[in-house]
Write a structure and sequence with these properties.
Elements lengths: L13 E5 L4 H11 L3 E6 L16 H4 L8 H5 L5 E4 L5 H10 L6 E4 L5 H5 L3 H7 L4 E4 L16 H7 L20 H5 L8 E3 L12 H13 L3 H8 L6 E3 L3 H5 L2 H5 L3 E2 L5 E3 L8 E3 L3 E2 L23 H7 L4 H9 L4
Parallel strand pairs: 1-2, 1-4, 2-3, 4-5
Antiparallel strand pairs: 6-7, 8-11, 9-10
Length: about 325
């Protein structure tokens, strides 16, 4: 009900986020978009690896701010708070146990399976403190099987699963998909490309696919994309132009689904302008799954490392002196 969830269907649900890099943080960003109170737990010595995953063009943008931040990090960590906590120290683990006592608590992590158990903070240990705890873990190979202990990033798992083998030209090398491919290839296409899916029950037609490709390619490339769009309009066939990233963000369907959000919520340092003003870094994707009575909102920009450490621990009952002492000991 909208009255019960004014800020989203997950409004107020606390979720300590022990994830880093991409898959995990993207998961918790979606939960945060729906109103969950996501508390990103980061290592005091540097935090999430992606804070410093910057392109060459970004280095001068972020340096004057003094923030450990990158566009990559910003894209998957909005609407979250950040605290620093060294889980390798006993006191750090004790604080995590205190957090686990919060009702309706959900823990999200992407450690290699078994790592949290070795650290003494596994799911079963936390359930001794809070039997209702919900544990969600993601890893490259899953929680069971002979490869479960292996670390796995996006490219590693894609290669293992055969995705690169089936991507690219038939007689070419394996091809890795990447978000930057559309941007890099935009200037190569004079008229643009078109994706046309013509489906029917005459399966024997695929026997001459190679020959048809040679016949159709010069015909399709002889006219601009806009011409073919006009020809195909109303035909009932599935078709679409190959859009650039800029065209995707300006697409009417993107706007209708509220999938382009938050220019004013993402900040980067600008060396020009009065008082070294902050300017927005660009558009960001909205949340795809919609609810009838609530709407995902951008409530806060991606947090600086440990930005909410003091306020969080003060709310847990720690005094400023205790917080300062834990900082000196490297716990926070």
């Amino acid at each position: 009900h909208a009255s019960a969830h004014a800020n989203g269907p997950l409004s107020g649900i606390p979720i300590p986020d022990l994830k880093r890099v991409l898959a995990g943080p993207f998961c918790t960003q979606i939960l945060a978009d729906y109103g969950a109170k996501v508390l990103k737990v980061e290592d005091p010595k540097g935090g999430d690896d992606t804070r410093l995953w910057r392109t060459a063009a970004e280095k001068d943008i972020w340096k004057p701010t003094g923030k450990d931040m990158s566009v990559y990090f910003c894209a998957i960590n909005r609407n979250k708070m950040s605290i620093t906590l060294d889980l390798k120290q006993e006191k750090g683990r004790e604080i995590l146990f205190d957090l686990s006592k919060i009702p309706t608590w959900c823990q999200v992590e992407n450690f290699v399976p078994g790592k949290m158990v070795k650290m003494g903070i596994g799911c079963e240990k936390l359930r001794e403190i809070n039997p209702l705890i919900i544990h969600a873990g993601v890893s490259g190979y899953g929680a069971s099987g002979p490869y479960s202990h292996r670390a796995g990033y996006d490219t590693i798992v894609a290669v293992e699963a055969g995705m690169l083998h089936i991507t690219g030209e038939h007689d070419g090398p394996p091809t890795r998909l990447g978000l930057g491919l559309t941007d890099m290839s935009t200037g190569l296409y004079m008229h643009g490309h078109l994706v046309l899916g013509a489906t029917n029950n005459r399966h024997s037609r695929v026997q001459n696919r190679a020959e048809l490709k040679e016949i159709l390619e010069p015909i399709m490339s002889a006219k601009a994309t806009e011409v073919w769009l006009a020809v195909l309009e109303g035909s009932g066939l599935p078709y679409t132009p190959v859009n650039t990233i800029e065209e995707v963000f300006s697409h009417p369907q993107t706007a209708a689904r509220d999938m382009c959000q938050g220019r004013s919520e993402y900040w980067a340092y600008s060396p020009s302008g009065p008082n070294s003003a902050y300017t927005d870094t660009g558009n960001h994707s909205g949340t795809p799954v919609k609810f009838s009575e609530t709407k995902p909102q951008l409530r806060r920009s991606p947090p600086s490392l440990g930005e909410h450490t003091n306020s969080t621990f003060k709310g847990m009952g720690f005094s400023p002196k205790e917080i300062g002492a834990m900082r000196e000991q490297g716990i926070l």
